[in-house]
## 1
Amino acid sequence: MGSITLLGDAAHPIRPSLGLGTTLALQDAVTLAEVLDVITPTDIPSVSAALSRYEHKRIEITTPLQQKASEQGLAFYSDDQADRLKMGCEAALASRKQ
Ligand SMILES: Cc1cc2nc3c(=O)[nH]c(=O)nc-3n(C[C@H](O)[C@H](O)[C@H](O)COP(=O)(O)OP(=O)(O)OC[C@H]3O[C@@H](n4cnc5c(N)ncnc54)[C@H](O)[C@@H]3O)c2cc1C
């Protein structure tokens, strides 16, 4: 683990289906600030350890949400759904014409 890290979409891009991307980015920022607040910035090993702690904390929370958003996004936007939506629209148009 080095002395750089990522946050927000750069660390865990997430489908917009759960509407959580901004919240997760802000939580990342707060968690990062908390772990960095208690170390000496010039002490590189402690910076690396703090970034590691931050990454572990955030990966634990963001990974399942990323997975859930991905599954939900697929359910919304899959070909099946598009086909069903198209058939529903066609049926509604057909019933209007009668
Ligand atoms: C269609 C859609 C709907 C969404 N709806 C929601 C919602 O309802 N609720 C929600 O919480 N989230 C939503 N999100 C997700 C949310 O927008 C993102 O998760 C959030 O903006 C991530 O913030 P960020 O700071 O990590 O990245 P960004 O907001 O992408 O910020 C990164 C910034 O870095 C800048 N940048 C990039 N490269 C460079 C460079 N080389 N030099 C300088 N600057 C650079 C970019 O211009 C940008 O301003 C949605 C996303 C999409 C696409």
## 2
Amino acid sequence: MTNLRVLVVGAGFAGAVIARECAEAGHAVHVIDRRPHIGGNAHDTVNSHGERIHIYGPHLLHGERDSVAIRWLSRFTDWVPYEHRVRALLADGRTTPLPVNRTTLEDVFGVALESEEEAKALLASQATPLQPTNTDEVFLSNVGPRLADLFFRPYTRKMWGVCPTELEAAVGARLPVRSNRDDRYFTDSFQAMPKDGFTALFARIFDHPAIEVTLGEAYGEEHDRHYDHVFLSLPIDEYFRFRHGRLPYRSIRFESDQMPVDQAATVINYTDTGVYTRCTQWDLIPNSGRRTDGQHTITREIPCDASENNNECYYPVRNRQSLALYDRYRTLAAAEPNKTFIGRCGLFRYIDMVPCVTIHLQLAARFLAGEPLPRAA
Ligand SMILES: Cc1cc2nc3c(=O)[nH]c(=O)nc-3n(C[C@H](O)[C@H](O)[C@H](O)COP(=O)(O)OP(=O)(O)OC[C@H]3O[C@@H](n4cnc5c(N)ncnc54)[C@H](O)[C@@H]3O)c2cc1C
């Protein structure tokens, strides 16, 4: 393949992987992002107190130690080991581990469970035997109504803005329930934070003589004629000017505050029916500094529809209607020459950071091998 001029729209993980791989293969890459910073939603910054804040919500990196994606990322950063823990705030002010594990069951039911078998028996006594067809039924079949009402139903309603009965079963199936005492949020073999933060990691990925990055520049059709191929991590419906209607996304508004004491875990989930879902204490993530005035910056999250938050599209709401709508946009995308939709909003799919790297390394390899690419996966 001769040297190409490649435009990458979006300086998040999807765009960064494509940009670096194309540059290393000898192509000239221009990355644009309409935001004033690199890193997409993983962007972080150090505040005036020395605390590292992730401005679009906490991003915890986890994957398999020997995976291609972790090896690739490790070229651009050293790591600080970090196993993330989350606790749920109960009505009486106590906190208990999430995901639900043996300790959580003891806290809620006020019993001592001597073994995994006892924990499993307790869970089985609570669960409703049924074949789940929606998220609410997943909760019922996994943990039964009492734990569903405590940990899952109100949180899910706040998070997704609909009753769990209206969500496909796959959403609820992502929430594990354990009978052991493992209180880590993730169980992957590699859990760490980039030593100097995500923004420094992105700066090193983009630090290549064949990559030019322009920030504060939105994509427009006028860009097309300057490039041989365009990778787009913008929302696919936005690209087609919402011709068939808007794809639904949930978003989050953030409220920061300070606290004089440490909270019980980096993230506290609120189980009540109020507006907040969770609260992050930033200096408990080990690549953050701590303040010298004894205070700790915290950020609470209020989920909302993207339309209520300047169309900041965070979580694709995938259901039968939205997937049918996405299919119509994919059909339109198939007719666009030399363009490939990438990333969370191009593919209309929530993707964690490590899988995002994996998917886009594979996509880059196909592009560089001259293989035909899907316009949108
Ligand atoms: C609240 C939240 C928390 C998360 N927590 C975790 C976590 O703990 N662990 C984990 O592994 N993953 C987490 N993720 C997922 C992670 O953010 C994604 O894997 C990552 O964002 C995917 O990168 P991306 O490049 O697809 O999208 P993004 O990071 O969103 O990047 C897309 C970029 O494209 C730019 N763009 C869009 N339209 C245009 C346009 N028209 N012109 C120019 N630029 C444009 C945007 O400004 C943006 O910077 C979280 C996601 C969210 C929303």
## 3
Amino acid sequence: MHALLPKDQETIVALATARGSGAIALIRLSGTDSLEVANRIAQLSSQLILSEQPSHTIHHGFAVDHHGTKLDEVLFLLMKAPKTFTGQDTVEISCHNNQFIIDAIIQAAIVAGARQATAGEFTMRGFLTGKFDLTQAEAINEIIHAPSEKALQCSLAQLKGSLSQCFEGIEVQLVELLSLCEASFEFLEEEQRDLDFNLMVHARIADILSKIQTTKKHFNMQQQIKDGVRISLIGSVNAGKSSLFNALLGKERAIVTNVAGTTRDSIEANLYKEGYYWLLIDTAGLRQAGDSIEQRGIEKSYEEAIKADVMLLVVDASRPTTTEELDVYQRMAQEYAAKIIVIFNKSDLACHPQVATIFSGLPMLYVSAAENIGMADVEQAIAQKITSLFDLQQTSFVLTQRQFNLMSEIEKKLLYIEKSLTSQVHYELVSYELKDLLEKVCELTGKRVSEEILDTVFSKFCVGK
Ligand SMILES: Nc1nc2c(ncn2[C@@H]2O[C@H](COP(=O)(O)OP(=O)(O)O)[C@@H](O)[C@H]2O)c(=O)[nH]1
Ligand SMILES: [Mg+2]
């Protein structure tokens, strides 16, 4: 547990709910003197004194200023330490959501001895009093700002300690490695020592590294959850990509014409479906110049294919496929099999299904974007691809940029140690590096963490949290 500085004992006050319209607002008071401060601004209907009431009870009454003027009819939620979010005595005032009332109550609390809380100060206190560790505190912020259901689930799991467990696992492995290192140094015979030690350290470092690398992959996945899963529509000009894009969006967003090359550059649109943000990208497509496909169009399509998480390869089913198109499709199918969904569009017209053979094994759908036929199947196929994409990663926590950077530093150091393990091992040096590494791991969970880091972590919170 960290030491509570005098400033962390002070009674702080802040609005915990968002400003703006709504029926009720919640003002929070926490700190050593919060009960006394609350007594000064509370006039209970029961005529009783708030602080003398049992913990975790609710009391009806009025919030008053130092003249005894009633500011609002409110409910006081009395929560005595230690069973509170901050681990300190806490009073929450639920008042009417009017900015003048809110400001007047906060002002009254300040006159009564509280001070305005800084960003994240309530959560920082919970951390300082040992209510949760730093990864859990960070999860609280992620919960508040969760951009999707999936991200929310991850943050909730993290709050229960999934990320802390992962970091602790790494810590335990490092400690084991360190003790092995020191034991070998003392007990093994000289010739035996270098050989055994090298093998052992290599194996263990490889193990920790793979854990770190998996966790880092999670981070990249999570950025996707936040920013949107990239779903690209790729295919020849006039295949109906823009029509499909619009049909999926449910509005005339991209311009659809039968003049080849209407969509000159990519168009992007966000939509929220099945717990994820979808970032739909309508590309210009494989342009026909004279009799052949323009090279630039092919290149651009490949560039987009690399970036895409899910690729909708739109094929015009109403006409035979050209040999050039076949080449492109074949290459796409080989290189990006995992992310392709083949869409045979214009299936309301005559169908030329011979092209289907090169896509065997890939998901294929026969649709008509213009007639709005099969759109639900397309959505379902996309959702399935996303699920398989994310299930692969088994994400159960959300990494912040801070944690990701620390992970990268740890990884770099481990790789360095691994490289420095030559036949002539300098045990002291390896021990030294390992100890240094352990310090970094402690920064992850916040077991040993500087004031400065705490300030950066909690400044990302809102005031009142
Ligand atoms: N019959 C039919 N025509 C379609 C279908 N989808 C698109 N089209 C037409 O094909 C032409 C090209 O469509 P567009 O969406 O601009 O293709 P893009 O170049 O791939 O973006 C337009 O005239 C559309 O009306 C479809 O499912 N059936
Ligand atoms: Mg288009």
## 4
Amino acid sequence: MVKIEKGPRAAAYPAPAALVSAYDENEKANAMTAAWISNICAEPSTVVVGIRENRYTFELVEKSGCFGVNIPNVAIAKETDYFGVVSGRDTDKFKDTGLTVFKGKEVNVPLINECPINIECKLIKQVKIGSHHAFFGEVLKVYYDEKMLDEKGAPDILLADVLAYGTGKYYSLKESIDAYGFSKRK
Ligand SMILES: Cc1cc2nc3c(=O)[nH]c(=O)nc-3n(C[C@H](O)[C@H](O)[C@H](O)COP(=O)(O)O)c2cc1C
């Protein structure tokens, strides 16, 4: 196998192109696109997001102590990209795109209606890594679009048609190969 060496870079992909949302002090919602995001712990259920210090969202999450992670689908790919190329300091991205929010039930956080998955988080830890800080959010509640639940009521990411991101491009997911643990199935 021929391997081509490259320097340090963000090469763990694909990742979701998520929208990280938060309110300002006047309860005006903002969100930014974030691909550096992951589930990181089961008990308590926790996500981690890498946010650069100069992002407006950085300031809002730090101040409000909570944030939303919204997983977009292919239908709102263009809006998702827009949230990642302009700042809430300069414009109201919700007005510009027409995306709408509902309020979280546990903490004061805006969640995006048009995203099939919404994760309501309380900030539990912030670690400065370098250019970006890792924001750890305890998951307080998850909201699924009913259309992404299968006949047993289980969430299915193909039904949600979620967006994936990596190598500078957006992707759709087309098929499931098999299920967790299938290698040991008799
Ligand atoms: C696909 C994509 C992924 C991105 N991922 C991140 C990320 O993980 N962390 C980050 O700090 N910025 C990321 N950005 C950049 C921010 O979304 C962008 O700077 C945004 O304008 C910040 O908005 P704000 O100032 O309203 O917070 C990404 C942008 C795009 C388009």
